[in-house]
Write a structure and sequence with these properties.
This protein is mainly alpha-helical. The chain is built from eight helices and seven strands; from the N terminus they run H-E-E-E-H-H-E-E-E-E-H-H-H-H-H.
Length: 268
């Protein structure tokens, strides 16, 4: 419907997808010097209007796929640019640390997508940490959802929605409330709230733009070759502390350690 460099089409969904792919490409290249999501200039391709009233968007290992939503629970999945960035960042993880999609490593996989998804949004809007809403999927919930603002909150996990139709946001923000479950690949979309809040705590302590020091630490953690594919929260946390020390200084490393301590994850 629209190739690179072509003018906008009459299809708003295609135009939003195009803009979101571009915003994600821009973040990785300009903030981290990473050429596309694989670091080697991978062309970003997307399919829109997938299926009928499809309530999701996903990275299928090769390209993006967007549903239109059912119009009641969910609207068009190209509306929130952070959702586009989130799904494309699964590709980034695939080509970097390749975190296994189960249990804590799976929750970290989801967490990394939320981090880079929100960084795509903040970078595109020029928002510092204080201006950002730290919500994932704001604007996506449809008219059938009375009490909800987004899919997830990185600032305050568990508060994105509390609705008769969707239920209560199940995300914990601290290891004291870690959810042990066999569903959702061992709670990958649930327990990601814990490292999400750690990133938020670090970003707000450091201030400025989250794609700078916090984002660079997370980027280098994912691309540095130190993580195992089945990394648990504590391993990921230790690597971020060491990475912060290597990239910056002991004070920044201590800030990273405090952020993880704030959600009950040990770093030593």
């Amino acid at each position: 419907m629209r190739a690179e460099g072509e003018p906008p089409t009459t299809d708003d969904t295609a135009n939003r997808a195009y803009a979101g792919l571009g915003a994600t490409f821009d973040l990785f290249l300009n903030a981290f010097g990473h050429d596309s999501i694989d670091g080697a200039g991978l062309p970003l391709t997307a399919t829109v209007h997938y299926d009928e009233k499809y309530d999701n968007a996903f990275w299928n290992g090769e390209q993006m796929v967007f549903g239109d939503g059912d119009g009641e629970l969910f609207l068009d999945f190209t509306i929130p640019v952070d959702v586009i960035g989130h799904e494309l960042s699964h590709g980034f993880t695939q080509y970097s640390a390749n975190l296994a999609y189960y249990g804590q490593s799976g929750a970290l996989n989801e967490h990394v997508s939320d981090v880079f998804g929100t960084l795509v949004k903040q970078y595109a809007l020029g928002q510092g940490v204080e201006q950002a809403d730290w919500l994932i999927g704001a604007g996506l919930l449809g008219p059938a959802v009375d009490k909800g603002t987004a899919l997830r909150s990185m600032k305050d996990p568990g508060t994105a929605y509390d609705d008769d139709v969707l239920g209560k946001d199940p995300q914990p923000g601290h290891m004291d409330h870690y959810v042990r479950t066999g569903s959702d690949n061992g709670g990958v979309h649930i327990n990601s709230g814990i490292p999400n809040r750690a990133f938020y705590l670090l970003a707000t302590e450091l201030g400025g733009n989250a794609w700078e020091r916090p984002g660079r630490i997370w980027y280098a953690t994912m691309t540095g070759g130190e993580l195992t594919e089945d990394a648990r929260f504590s391993e990921f946390a230790r690597v971020t502390v060491a990475t912060a020390r290597n990239l910056y200084d002991e004070a920044t490393a201590e800030a990273v350690r405090r952020a993880w301590s704030g959600v009950g994850v040990p770093t030593s």
